[in-house]
Amino acid sequence: xxxxxxxxxxxxxxxxxxxxxxxxxxxxxxxxxxxxxxxxxxxxxxxxxxxxxxxxxxxxxxxxxxxxxxxxxxxxxxxxxxxxxxxxxxxxxxxxxxxxxxxxxxxxxxxxxxxxxxxxxxxxxxxxxxxxxxxxxxxxxxxxxxxxxxxxxxxxxxxxxxxxxxxxxxxxxxxxxxxxxxxxxxxxxxxxxxxxxxxxxxxxxxxxxxxxxxxxxxxxxxxxxxxxxxxxxxxxxxxxxxxxxxxxxxxxxxx
Length: 255
What we know:
By secondary structure, this protein is α/β, with parallel strands linked by helices. The protein has 2 domains: 1-79 and 165-255, Rossmann fold, CATH 3.40.50; 89-164, no CATH class. It is built from 9 helices and 12 strands. It has helices spanning 42-49, 72-78, 95-99, 119-132, 149-161, 179-194, 206-212, 235-243, 247-254, and strands at 4-13, 16-26, 31-35, 57-62, 65-66, 80-83, 106-109, 112-117, 167-171, 198-202, 215-220, 223-229. The strands form 3 sheets. The protein has a 6-stranded mixed beta sheet with strand order 6-9-10-3-11-12, sandwiched between helices. Strand 4 (57-62) and strand 5 (65-66) form a beta hairpin. The longest helix is centred in the last third of the chain and has 16 residues, at 179-194.
């Protein structure tokens, strides 16, 4: 049984149908790339998976259980995390503070929470998360704004791991990074896979996709135009699916 099952998902915004019966599945520990031109429906689909939007119709099942959209906190409790392109980090805060931002461990007094942040637990936990990713950072006491783009991605992924996710969605994680830093982020994705965490990768960089993905799913005008094992396709074929030049896309237009 697939870990994530998306069945016949449709989404309307007024008279406009953005998603038209999307079916996607993902197995535990699989890296799936989702590609598509602007307006293909990628962002809308991710917002449905993470609970930001409710689908107009269709069903999403995770670990065999149906999940309801519209409440990101419920989706997070299920074990689904998303790392957005802008990373949502606080540049003036240090690495450790960013990793536990909004859910800092606090001291207790006779079993009652005091609301006072337990700094020792914050820094100890941050060290553990960074170690789990097998990455090197200059210091967990350094302000995030002083880190490189690839290092900031490490912090964002470490923060996601504090929720013990089963599935991580990454939105354009290598955009605007230097070549050396891109390889660093791709290795982080491989590490998540080694830990049995499922990854959905949203990216326009086909070279990155062919480096780390097990499957590539193409969206075209709100439908899945192709779902292929990475070893059974090519960049040229994926581009054809993205721009609507493939036979599958032409058939969808006829429908």
